[in-house]
Amino acid sequence: MEVSQKKSVTTQFLTATTAIIGAIIGLVLGNMIENFTTFIIPFTAGGFIYIAGSDLIPELHKERELSKSLCNYSGLF
After folding, report:
1. What is the chain's mean pLDDT, rounded?
2. Could you give the CA distance from residue 13 to residue 7 in angstroms, rounded to a whole number?
3. Residue 54 to residues 13, 60, 70: CA-CA distances in angstroms?
4. Which of 10, 33, 72, 76 has its CA 20 to 30 A from that of 56?
5. H/E stretch holding 48
6. Phi, psi dihedrals of residue 41, rounded to the nearest 5°
7. What is the pLDDT of residue 21?
8. Which residues lie below 8 Å from residue 29, measured CB to CB, with a gap of 6+?
9. What is the pLDDT of residue 51?
10. What span, in angstroms and rounded, lies between the C-alpha atoms of 3 and 12?
């Protein structure tokens, strides 16, 4: 599927903009709500664990050499 350069740039810009808006909201809420990091850090960690479980681990199963596989899994853990 080919995507035009204009659509690709526009999509990338929107993605970057939402990341900046999210960072600003996080900073504002962090200053307004006491112990905000106590709630947001587990949520963020869960997101990274989900990414590792759904995307990285299936890729690791493609490796056939035992030494490389063990090295990859030890890096993951």
Report:
1. 85
2. 10
3. 26, 11, 19
4. 10
5. helix 36-51
6. -65, -45
7. 96
8. 36
9. 84
10. 12
Return the CA Rg of the chain. Answer: 19
CB neighbours (10 Å) of residue 13? 10
Number of neighbours of residue 10 by Cβ within 10 angstroms = 11
Q: What is the mean pLDDT of residues 47-57?
A: 82
What pLDDT digit, counting tens, does each position of 12-48 carry? Answer: 999 999 999 999 998 898 888 888 888 888 988 999 8
Spatial distance between the Cα atoms of 71 and 50, rounded to a whole number of angstroms: 21
**pLDDT more than 90, % of the chain:** 27
Instruction: Please check whether residue 51 is in contact with residue 67, taking contact to mean a CB–CB distance below 8 angstroms.
Output: no
Residue by residue, DSSP assigns 20-43 as: HHHHHHHHHHHHHSTTHHHHHHHH
**In the structure encoding, which two tokens stand for residue 22, read together?**
């999210």
Token digits for 38? 């106590």
